[in-house]
Design goal:
Elements lengths: L4 E3 L6 E7 L2 H15 L1 H13 L1 H6 L2 H22 L18 H26 L10 H32 L3 E6 L2 E4 H13 L5
Antiparallel strand pairs: 1-2, 2-3, 3-4
Length: 201
């Protein structure tokens, strides 16, 4: 199949082919993302009022569960509306062919360890406990269940399920680096995902 290259060619290490990305679909994806993510701010405020500042400061994962649960519910409703109840088209199906569950778990554990070191290197070197929240059984269970189980689902469904699929249906283009290739929507969504998490930096 012949491709129209915007950058590179068949032999290049990096190439962009068959690219057609309009501004309107990109702006629609941003708007849809805002509709999904912004209500989580209100859920966060609701958790703060319900549990009080002291509880949320000592157990911040409570507010994170509230905001991410809200985001997940709105994303599922948006998929039902935009996708006309065809959840299968938005990633809700068993993967065809090879499964990458083992690799995903391994990478998750690896990056979990790396980020633990990055976040708490001074405390690790000083061999002291982190001071940002009490290290209780409840906090450890809350953080591990949020970070280890819930955050992946509550962010993958809105970003990769809803927004990336939304963009893939409205844009064309393949980006290839070495032997890896993906739809240009994956690159655009990585950019939007980084913007959505800008406050984390």
């Amino acid at each position: 199949m012949s491709r129209s290259y915007r950058f590179g060619n068949d032999e290049s290490i990096f190439s962009i082919a068959d690219l057609h990305v309009g501004l309107w679909p990109f702006l629609q994806a941003i708007g849809l993302g805002a509709i999904v993510i912004l209500p989580g701010v209100y859920a966060n405020d609701w958790a703060l009022r319900l549990f009080g500042m002291d509880q949320i400061m000592s157990k911040p994962w409570i507010a994170l569960f509230a905001s991410h649960f809200t985001q997940l519910c709105i994303a599922l409703a948006a998929i039902a509306w935009v996708g006309r109840m065809r959840f299968r088209d938005y990633g809700f199906r068993r993967p065809e062919g090879k499964s990458y569950v083992g690799a995903a778990v391994a990478y998750g554990v690896l990056f979990g360890l790396i980020m633990t070191v990055v976040d708490y290197l001074p405390q690790i070197l000083a061999q002291t406990a982190p001071q940002d929240l009490p290290l209780t059984k409840v906090n450890l269970a809350g953080w591990l269940s949020f970070e280890g189980l819930f955050v992946g689902i509550s962010e993958e469904v809105p970003f990769r399920g809803l927004l990336q699929t939304f963009l893939m249906k409205r844009t064309t283009g393949r980006v290839r680096f070495w032997k890896y290739e993906m739809h240009v929507a994956g690159i655009l969504l990585a950019f939007l995902f980084a913007l959505a998490h800008l406050s984390s930096f």
